[in-house]
Amino acid sequence: MNEIFIRTDKGEYVGGETIFGIVYVHIPQPVESKGLKLKVKGYEKCEWEYSYVEQEGDNWVKHTGDKKDKKEFFRVDIKLIDYPGGFPVGHFSYPFQYTLPRGLPSTEFMHRCVHPAWWV
Questions:
Q1: Per-residue pLDDT tens over the stretch 1-22
Q2: Global pTM?
Q3: Distance of alpha carbon 89 from its chain centroid, rounded?
Q4: 3-class DSSP assignment, residue 1
Q5: Residues 6 or more apart whose Cβ sits within 8 Å of residue 12
Q6: Facing residues of 110 across strands?
């Protein structure tokens, strides 16, 4: 079974910091591939339920529902290596680094329904 692992130099980052990491690849079987790239993205999302009561004629009607929203802050692809003839069999490691944009919201001060995520 082919495997990919990612290790970064630490677990949490703030805007402006550089992520240093290594992508480890174990390929025991040939793989058709043009290469390997790392997608890095940062976003926040929020989901909540609401309810309210409204008078309609002589009756009071309860309305309920749910809302969700998502805001993307950045998305980047980092090309690690090209393999035009397919991924070779073996063990490989590919170092990478990416500097997060300054001014990203901090997870420390977010309202309880907002969940920022910085994915590598």
A1: 889 999 999 988 888 999 999 9
A2: 0.69
A3: 28
A4: coil
A5: 107
A6: none
